[in-house]
Amino acid sequence: MVKNSSAGCAIKDQRIIFDGVVVEVDELVRRLKAVANNAPETLVIIKADAKATHGAVVEVMDAAKRSGLNRLAIATKPKERRGVGE
User: Fold this and answer.
1) Is 6-74 in CATH node 3.30.420.270?
2) Is residue 25 helix, strand or coil?
3) Counting beta carbons within 10 angstroms of the beta carbon of residue 33, is it exposed (0 to 12), middle (13 to 18) or buried (19 or more)?
């Protein structure tokens, strides 16, 4: 039985970062295809900063799909909860 793996992709300051390296979309597709060849059930986790546009997130999602990786998740950061009376 193969253990499921994950691959993280970040969007920071409108740049795509994969494996700690800033990449263009075409390079992201190439790298994700290599991941898919080794582990086709890999979960791609997308983490975007507050400046990331919807289009940039969709571009990364599309790159994952074109690479053959269909399991996607978007990392979220929970909002800080304020207590009563604050």
Assistant:
1) yes
2) helix
3) middle
